[in-house]
Amino acid sequence: MIKFYSIAKSLKNAEFWLLGIGSSLIAINLTTVLRHEKFTSAYISFLFFLTIYFLLKEKRHNLNLESEIFSSCLGTLVIVLVFINSTFQINIGILSILPPLMSGFGVALLASGYQGLKQYRKELLILVFLTIRSFLVLLPYQIDISLLAAKLSTALLWYTGFQVNRSGVMINLPTGSIEVYPGCAGIDIIIDLLSLAVLFIFLFNLSLQQKIIVPIVAATLGFIVNGFRVALMAIFVAQGNKQAFYYWHQGDGSLIFSMIATLFFGCFCWFLLSRNERENQNTTDYSR
C-alpha cells in the first residue's frame, strides 16, 4: 500500500513538472513568434499548441511516464537549448523555426524516453506541420502564384461588368492599374487555412477522402477570397481612392479578408461534421 502510494505520488509529481516545463516552452515559443512574425502566426501557433494539449489530455491516463537516464539527459539538453536560444535571441537562420519541434521532442523524451516516443506520434506530427508552416511563412516570395491571382481577379472584374484587361500580373482598368506582387497573391491566407485544415484533420475522425478534400477546399477558399480582395483594390485604384487602397492592402482590411476566408472554411468544416454525424446516426438506426 505504501509502495503504491509512493508510485502514484511520483507520477503526479512527474505530471506536474512536465506540465510546468511544457507551459513554459509554449510561452517561450509564442513570445518568439510574436517577436518575429505577424499576430496571425502567433494565433495559429497557439491553436496548434492548444490542439496538442487536448490530444494529450484525452489520453493522459494511458501514457507511460517512464524514461531512462540517457533519454532524460538528451531531452533536458534539447529543452535547455530552446531556453538558451530564447534568452539570448541567437540568430540561427532557418534553424529558428525548429524550437517548437525541439520543445515537443525534448518533453517527450523527458516524459517517456526514446521507447515512448510512439505515444506522441500525433503531437509530434502536428509540430512537424507547424515547422513546415513557419518555413513557408519565411519564404512567401518563393511561392509565386501572382499570375494566377491576377487572372482570377481580372475574371471577377470582367464578370461584374468592369472594362478590364490583363498584361501579365498587371490588371488594367480605364482609369488605373495595379500590379499583383507575390506577397499580395494570397499565399499567406492559403497557408493559414491549410494550417487550420491540418488541425481539423487531427481533431476529428474523417475518412481518407475527406482528409484529402479538406486541404484542397482550404487552399481554394483562400485563393478565391484573396482574388476578391485584389479585385477590390483594383477598383479603389481606378477610383483614385488611395486611402481605401492602403487600408485593404496593408491595413486592417487585409485581416478582414483573412477572417472571411476562415469563416467560410469554418462553415465547410461544420457542414462536413454535421454530414458525418447524420450518416453515423442513420447507420446506428439501421443496425438496430
TrEMBL record:
Spell out where the chain crosses the membrane.
16-34, 40-56, 68-84, 90-112, 124-143, 180-205, 212-235, 255-273
What InterPro entries does this protein's entry cite?
Answer: Exo/Archaeosortase_dom (IPR026392), Exosortase (IPR019127), Exosortase_cyanobac (IPR022505)
The record ties this protein, via Pfam families, to: Exosortase_EpsH
Keyword Amino-acid biosynthesis attributed: no
Q: How does this protein sit in the membrane?
A: Multi-pass membrane protein
Keyword check for Protease: yes
Which keywords does UniProt give here? Cell membrane, Hydrolase, Membrane, Protease, Transmembrane, Transmembrane helix
Record GO terms (molecular function): peptidase activity
- Biological process, per Gene Ontology: proteolysis
Localization, UniProt? Cell membrane
Q: Origin, by domain of life?
A: Bacteria
Q: List cellular component terms (GO).
A: plasma membrane
Main location group: membrane
Task: Kindly provide the name given to this protein in its UniProt entry.
Answer: Cyanoexosortase A
Lineage of the species this protein comes from:
Bacteria, Bacillati, Cyanobacteriota, Cyanophyceae, Nostocales
